[in-house]
Fold this protein.
Amino acid sequence: MIMDNYRPLILITNDDSINAPGVHHLAECVRSLGDVFVVAPASPRSGQSAAMTVGSPLRIKEVESTQEGVRLFTVDGTPVDCVKLALHAIVPRRPDVVFAGINHGSNSGVNVTYSGTMGAVLEGCIEGIPSVGFSLMHHSMKADFTLSTAFVAAIAAEVIAHGLPDGVCLNVNIPARVMPEGIRVCRAAHGKWVDGYKRYVDPHGVPFYWLTGKFVNFEPEATDTDEYWLQRRYISVVPVNCDPSARNEIKTLADRFDAK
Amino acid sequence: MIMDNYRPLILITNDDSINAPGVHHLAECVRSLGDVFVVAPASPRSGQSAAMTVGSPLRIKEVESTQEGVRLFTVDGTPVDCVKLALHAIVPRRPDVVFAGINHGSNSGVNVTYSGTMGAVLEGCIEGIPSVGFSLMHHSMKADFTLSTAFVAAIAAEVIAHGLPDGVCLNVNIPARVMPEGIRVCRAAHGKWVDGYKRYVDPHGVPFYWLTGKFVNFEPEATDTDEYWLQRRYISVVPVNCDPSARNEIKTLADRFDAK
């Protein structure tokens, strides 16, 4: 519950770096809702999941902002580093929310596992702060974020006003190049990436490999998944458990393993 | 079900690199159970979660093995890269299991999120392969892994023989410096890392920060957590959901968000 006269503190990060338009668009969508601190990686960190920097130090740099009510910082680390270091050394009080994105590219389905955007969101959730990741299904740095502005602002305002269940954060994906039909809360579609690597041979005859491939949805018929609703031009909102323990399996597995 | 005359293929990786004793001890624990391929990072990759390398190429190098039935390879990437590239270009047939570890250090509680060991295990699980991460609660490269050998071999044999539930992998943590009392299947304790960074000032007067801190268990009284059983000298086995969707929350959140 937000009190009168209180300005919520909104911490924003991403994984595409401070130079990506998506993070500045997200700040613009929410800056009327509170004091905004953007703390973003100094360079792109896509596919970094919840990786954190343990073997080397990190630096913080404030950079000039052109948006009123928005301060901008870089950290030369991962999205998780940005959230951790923001809480430790940048923001003047505990954030009311952590938002990540808007990512240039989908984080639907299995991508939630690899996503640096969602890594930052998990970090916010571990800290007990309501946290949401936003991703647009378009990789281009010239992607048009404006069609979903009202939806992003509405989701952000709802989370700022009423929080989220303990231990649960949100993975929001936005269809590209269309005015969204609406919002659907759903689960992640099961699938994986296939045809994983392009093979090259260097001038010395030694092979090397570059990650590629395409996402395959294992359950295209299921009507309760993010992939299903995104294809129908809806914004998907997947609630994500911070604790991945499979509690339903404990009893059955105990019968197999406890006696070993 | 494993047929007579069939040699299971066991894919092993870790996040401490090919130079860490733990991965070779794990290979030794299980090499009587099948053909072992160790595909490990060329350099340490702790805290890498499910990060993958998207912006640069990867190389594979086979290195000499002194263990019969064990082949050793390095990939100059993350634990997830190791599993992906092993499946794509190294192993001669689909692995029957993916094992990661034995990690030098705990991956209990919230560490499951940051762990490169468990990132590799999630990748195996996404591929539909029964996958288990093993971690010893001792960071030293000279840690003694021998006290738990029989338990590790028993867990590995059980998973090879009977698999795991779809979409579920295991996070196994092993108490250090003691003969384990037994095994307990349980859930991850809730907690987080506090006192996050040590602050330095460089010769030019500019501050920099190095990650540190200690893990705080939010629920030390709970008797169904990994932290509880590890303190009592048991090996903890936490079943982990590959899909983090919080299905129980979908209906309640739909009432809040679908109409936005």
